Amino acid sequence: MGGLQGIKYRWLTWSAIALLILAVMITGARSETTTVTATVDYAKSGNTLELLWPLTPESPVTTLRLEGIQAPDAEQTPWGNTARNCLKEVREQIVRVESDDWTPDAHNRLWAYVWNGKTLLNVQLLEQGCAYIAGDRLPYGHHTAALIYAQEKARLLGLGIWNPETPLRETAKAFRRQSDAQSP
């Protein structure tokens, strides 16, 4: 191709490539995540932390619910206590809180990713077999792959709730439903 047609063809080709690169950059770009620091008072359960003070004046939340994971119910012996004990180390620690939505839920909890130093607690609990992925709350974001990988690793190694000798046989939600049905 020569002349004007060749220039037009090359221009269209380079324009298409530039648009493709721009589209990849836009879809691959992550928005900057805002994090705040908070001081943990204690672990309320295997997936919930109580804070010493409200998170921020704009968000007076004092309870953090770890995003993407579910821990056994406190009444599910022995897994409920074990799950809560997996969070013992963060008592009175200053943690970083990252959330996709800073709006508290109906129970005035903030669903969040919580970092203790360089450790993402949501992932650590899955790696230790202290929790499992909450299928109805699994976020499809930048931590999804890490959450899935951590759970599968614990499951394959038979850690915690995945221990073949004493596995967790029902989710916390199913356990509570069954307990409610059995109570008079």
Could you provide a short overview of the structure?
It contains five helices and eight strands; from the N terminus they run H-E-E-E-E-H-E-E-E-H-E-H-H.
Structure description:
With 184 residues, the chain is of the alpha+beta class. Helices cover 35% and strands 20% of the residues. It has helices at 3-28, 79-85, 121-127, 144-157, 172-182, and strands spanning 35-43, 48-51, 63-66, 69-70, 94-98, 109-116, 119-120, 132-133. A five-stranded mixed barrel has the order 1-2-3-6-5. A hairpin with a 2-residue loop joins β6 (109-116) and β7. α3 (121-127) runs parallel beside α4. It is globular, with a radius of gyration of 22 Å. The N and C termini lie far apart (85 Å). The model is unreliable at 22-31 (pLDDT under 50).
